[in-house]
Fold each of these.
Amino acid sequence: MATTPVPDWLQKFTGLNSWPDMNPPYIPLDFINFANIPNIPLRAPGTCPTNRLQCSFDCFKCVSHDDVYTCPRLSQTFDDGPSKFTKNLLKHLHSKATFFTLGLNVVKNPDIYLDIKNRGHLLGSHTWSHKFLPSLTNEEIIAQFEWSIWAMNATGHHLPKWYRPPYGGIDDRVRAIARMFGMQAVVWDHDSFDWQMESKPPQRTKKQILNDISRWKDQGRGIILEHDVYKSTTDLAIEINKIIGPNQMTVAECVDGINYVKEF
Ligand SMILES: [Zn+2]
């Protein structure tokens, strides 16, 4: 299937007849109340506030009361897709998993997105184009969420309940905005750093990752962060799936929550 068409209702609402590039335009929404957003200074990727008051996960591993950060069963999650490598992963996954998708990739790969959905996995938002959210203005953060949600709505006919901030970049300003969309943040307690197999030169080997997996399996719980955008990481994900086994949960199941804010 080609790109997801921009639905009529969205064309009428936004005045646009094509999907945005890396910098989606801000479209005002009547349910966003700017008075609910705390006044937290913007910060560049790799920089941190001097204290923990803003509850940054990327800087301090701080989690808020409604963040999901662990799971009663050890469970795999996949970020950054859907991609052409997701297809083969889906064929070999023998458990339910959660996929945090980029809006840009959702509209480019609608058939793969629907394959994920139809196989009973859970889909969440990973924003429109993977920016470090604490560096963006309120309007830019809203644009990252709204276009991602519209991509998922137009392609999968649902509104996401769960989102994962790119780079774990989240603080109380990002959370306040996401809550107005009815979404909750999902972070992780086990980072596979699988993408580092693709660094030049590679910073991480398959063996190192599998060692971590067996340690986490002994502990028996948690959310593993993986990526479905490389052959290496999806091939390894299939091996990890065999090791952990079918007894995994989606992040909604981890907290006994709903799958989507709404399904159409
Ligand atoms: Zn990501």
Amino acid sequence: MNINWYPGHMVKAKRMITENLKLVDLVVEILDARLPYSSRNPDFEKLFNNKKKVIVLNKYDLADPSVTTQWQKYYESSDIEVITVNSKTGSGNRDFINAINKVMADKFERDRLKGMKQRPVKAMICGIPNSGKSTFINKLTGSAPARTGDKPGVTKDRQWIKIHKNIHMLDTPGVLWPKFDDDKIALNLAITGAINDEILDLEQISRKLLSFLTENYSENLKKRYDLNELNSDPHKLLLDICMHRNFIKSGGEPDTLKAAIIILDEFRAGKIGRISLEAPNEF
Ligand SMILES: Nc1nc2c(ncn2[C@@H]2O[C@H](COP(=O)(O)OP(=O)(O)OP(=O)(O)O)[C@@H](O)[C@H]2O)c(=O)[nH]1
Ligand SMILES: [Mg+2]
């Protein structure tokens, strides 16, 4: 697959994150719960090395709950604070506030012992495109976010939003670049819509998704497309779906592109079921 981030974008994004990093106490990395490995930026550790952090597994409503539990255990075993959210409904936001307070607890305690007044925690959200950064921030802040105004020493164009009584969040999320060095990762990102569809071969992506679903979520697939059997050849399976859904071009040919687009749309909307593309034991 030929997908790339322009190096210029990467340098700019990195510079912006590095600058903002100096202003915050804590970084929130937002991952897609369906593919926490592939939606994690490879430079994240280096970039944020000594910052406190919370991992948010977003789009929990679309992911397989049992696989998400495995991911939570995986992060917790490395002492990383992790929570799940559905940013569309805001479910999990309370856990998010609790996680921030937990991660910051020792600092609060140190400040208290020094007799210092507790100042608000400053946090920044980072994640790859389409991971749900904007949706998450919007849900946390509500429709009319309480802006805290410019702080002395802070550039004017940066806004802090009060998300809780002692937690302020930078309103501009840090956009991270995904890793494309591995075909499987690029493919999983493409399936979820994290890569611009215009540059992809949608039939190829859809065939890969069908193979994955046949292997791991066969019942969901049968049910959604009303199939008794799943052809092990993904192209033939795509043709079967064309027949069942009546995706036929005017000349009588099966419209495999239309079927491919609809299968991807339905997967992304969660209509095939709650599906995870990766489990921690694969890495
Ligand atoms: N089902 C579901 N959809 C979500 C969730 N969070 C975000 N989305 C959807 O995912 C898509 C991307 O969300 P955005 O908030 O725009 O993502 P972003 O990280 O800000 O993306 P960029 O600004 O492009 O970097 C949108 O269609 C959202 O509606 C979630 O928790 N569940
Ligand atoms: Mg956004």
